[in-house]
Specification:
Blueprint lengths: L8 E5 L11 H15 L3 E7 L8 E10 L2 E11 L5 E6 L1 H4 L15 H19 L5 E5 L5 H7 L13 E5 L7 E3 L2 H4 L13 E2 L2 E3 H8 L2 E4 L2 H6 L10 H6 L4 E3 L28 H12 L6 H5 L2 E5 L8 H6 L10 E6 L3 H13 L4 E5 L3 H10 L2 E4 L9 H7 L3 E5 L2 H6 L23 E3 L4 H15 L2 H12 L5 H18 L13
Parallel strand pairs: 1-2, 1-6, 2-5, 6-7, 7-11, 11-12, 13-14, 13-16, 14-15, 16-17, 17-18
Antiparallel strand pairs: 3-4, 4-5, 8-10, 9-10
């Protein structure tokens, strides 16, 4: 098996990655993980669809591909990525040259099973055509869930692909790739897979379940989330399936792109700054207030600026914020939001901004440059999530000296250490606890959010202790290099486990 002295090769399959396509955090992960793995010496290939508007790459091959009687010519466009890694963009206009990535207007295309089966099959077939057998295949979320399934079925005895182990990563268990069972023959899969120990899920098939059951190792995007999804509260009906695979389930915390998110070299900031000299945050704060058409007088600049950058949905805690709508303007703080989501929450925040133009600002939409500016200019970053598999914004905030206030779930609990009197200067306590880096609340209630916010606002009034907390957060290492080393260990574990080994994780409906 490959070792750290002799790295192997990995074929990563997913539905989106920056800079090619993005709807969420998956794209950030797949946009940076390949480069971090390449820096460790691994030979890395990323396969994803060539969606409408993507014109990068040079044509490497064209060949016919048939999935369930549906035949189309596919092209593979190769793009060189940083660090020596590469991307294979699967070109098939009939399935990928469409209005949206997953469906029009945020919906889903009815043939999504076929679309993403074409992605997986094209990537595997092209690897075989090249004779480039990867050491391991790493599939992400339900869209790539068929990769472990095909490796265990259609390609089990293939001269090139046979016996390749796979790793399957769950980014958000709430999205399970559920489809009618009659898709099985249309995906070249036998009815023997329509069983509770394979793909069947309450009379339908789940591509997510297929990936979980057939991969050698399953990962979640944070250690805490890996534990949470084995419980009824966070398991979305899959907790039993995942408990049975506990021995092969690991949590690997996502990283962030520390070059793109770097306050010392961020081109979107008016002034660079560092942990040694935080004065640049004041300039960024003033610029944020200008962008939101809020006052920039001394009193406003002195008040803490609390920010949220998020999809405006219940999962992100916007129901809690709605319950606090009357309370927020009375706090000694200024609030801003950036994002899109449910109309009721967009209307709530634009209404609050209209009624309280001196205290609240709202920007409906997304703006990458503004997001960077907010991370730098805010004093407090709020993430009151109902559940959060990993979360990236809190790690950006820590890096930018913006103190996060978060709920103790998923990756938020793994990355933010609650401020406590014994650790009030950001140092380790006598009992050896980690340094405080923010404020954490447990109960998913409006009062939980408000109590944590009030604790943060109280500490903000003590500049010495506040700066110590900022600097403790900025000292954290959330780079992809750390996460990539964890994935290498996961790959080696999958390779060691090898082809054909099954554990007791089968036979569970949910």
């Amino acid at each position: 098996m490959p070792s750290r002295k002799k790295p192997g090769s990995v074929l990563i399959i997913g539905s989106e990655a920056v800079p090619f396509a993005k709807t969420g955090g998956l794209a950030d992960v797949l946009g940076t993980l390949p480069q971090a793995l390449a820096r460790l010496g691994w030979d890395v290939t990323l396969a994803l669809p060539r969606y409408r508007g993507v014109d990068e790459g040079s044509l490497a091959a064209r060949f016919p591909l048939t999935v369930g009687g549906y035949t189309r010519e596919v092209g593979i466009f190769e793009v060189s990525l940083a660090g020596g890694s590469r991307a294979w963009l699967v070109d098939c206009p009939d399935v990928f040259d469409r209005e949206g990535i997953y469906g029009p207007g945020g919906g889903e295309y009815s043939d999504n099973p076929r679309r993403f089966a074409m992605l997986v099959r094209a990537a595997l077939e092209f690897a075989a055509l090249r004779g480039a057998r990867p050491s391991v295949v790493h599939a992400h979320d339900w869209q790539a869930g068929l990769a472990p399934v095909y490796l265990k079925t259609r390609y089990a005895t293939h001269s090139v692909l046979g016996g390749i182990p796979s790793v399957f990563t769950i980014h958000n268990l709430a999205y399970q790739g559920l489809f009618d069972a009659d898709w099985l023959p249309r995906l070249d899969l036998g009815w023997d897979l329509f069983s509770i120990d394979r793909l069947e899920y309450w009379g339908r098939i789940s591509l997510l379940k297929g990936g979980i059951n057939e991969a050698e190792v399953v990962t979640a995007v944070s250690p805490r989330y890996a534990e949470e999804i084995q419980t009824p509260e966070f398991g979305f009906g899959f907790d039993g399936i995942l408990r049975r695979r506990r021995a092969d389930l690991a949590g690997v915390l996502n990283g962030i792109d520390v070059e793109r998110w770097d306050p010392e070299h961020d081109p979107f900031l008016p002034r660079p700054y560092s942990a040694d000299d935080l004065s640049g945050k004041d300039s960024a704060k003033a610029e944020v207030l200008v962008r939101y058409r809020l006052a920039t007088d001394g009193a406003t600049l002195k008040r803490p600026l609390v920010a949220m950058i998020s999809r405006m949905i219940d999962q992100k805690g916007f129901d809690l914020m709605a319950a606090l709508a009357d309370e927020l303007p009375r706090l000694e703080a200024t609030f801003i939001v950036l994002g899109t989501g449910e109309t009721r929450y967009q209307d709530l925040w634009t209404g609050l901004a209209a009624r309280h133009p001196d205290r609240i600002g709202a920007h409906i939409g997304f703006d990458e440059a503004l997001a960077h500016l907010i991370e730098a200019g805010a004093d407090i970053f709020l993430m009151p999530s109902r559940f959060e598999p990993c979360g990236l914004s809190q790690m950006y905030s820590l890096r930018y000296g913006t103190v996060p206030v978060v709920r103790a779930v998923g990756g938020l609990a793994d990355t933010v250490v609650d401020y406590a009197p014994s650790r009030r200067f950001g140092g380790a306590s006598s009992s050896g606890h980690k340094k405080s880096t923010g404020f954490v609340f447990q109960e998913y209630t409006p009062q939980g959010v408000l109590e944590a916010l009030n604790r943060a606002l109280a500490l903000y009034a003590d500049p010495k202790r506040w700066k110590a907390l900022q600097r403790a957060g900025m000292a954290q290492d959330h780079s992809w290099d750390r996460s990539a080393r964890e994935y290498v260990r996961i790959y080696e574990r999958a390779i060691k486990k090898g082809f054909g080994i099954r554990d007791s994780g089968f036979g569970v409906r949910g």
